[in-house]
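Suppose you are handed a protein chain with no further information: no name, no annotation, nothing but its sequence. What can you learn? This example shows the usual starting point.
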Amino acid sequence: MDPVLITRGDSPLVLGFPHTGTHVPEDIRGKLNDEGLLLRDTDWHIETLYDGLIEGATMVQATFHRYVIDANRDPSGQSLYPGQTTTGLVPLTTFDNTPIWRAGEEPDAAEIARRAALFHAPYHAALAAELARVKAIHGYAVLYDCHSIRSVIPWLFENTLPDFNIGTDMGRTCAPEIEAAAHAGTQATGRTDVLNGRFRGGWTTRHYGQPDMGIHAIQMELAQASHLDTEEPPFALSDAKCAILCPQLTDILTRILHAAAEAAGPAPQH
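A reasonable first move is to predict its three-dimensional structure. Written in structure tokens, the prediction is:
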């Protein structure tokens, strides 16, 4: 299976999906324990949630599961949140700190390097290429990194996660107008929201977000209670919840694109 699926559009918007994939190669699947085989920490149905919300958006989706390798972690293995609890480039546990590999089958450094070359690198090569393509058309690009997570995970954070969690690495990864537009959009929903809270943006957002170079990046972490029937197996998507959430997401994305266009200034003359 190809490690990345690309749907090309002609707008400045690129939607990244590093954690929606559920493919686990058989040689790796055989090393997962029963908990690991549940693939509990998938960003369930996010690609379906965003599909068609904004005309012309490009979608770049990792097809492999984050237990194979996490496409939103620094390939060097450096922690995104020093001093805080988190999972690594190849997770050893779930977000509940439950082991996912059979005893003695945890990946070693050579195996992690192999997976980085086979999965992590191709995903990011594709993402970088799509950002460069739309920037060449418009003079700028907006990467909106799409995520979701269970709303209650004591090992990672206290209490219940807000519905909308915006990450810009404290304003470093996008123009201030874009950050303000995203936050205004989440606040307009009347839902719970936070800007640069527990999730300030993963490696993808921080790596590609270079507003001085015309590439703006923002991460949106949705609490799964906002769109799933249940945050436990079978992790089914709720049509009723999506009917409310999807128009709100469209409004947020529209605000972001308007702000990005204003920040970029007049279109270049040909």
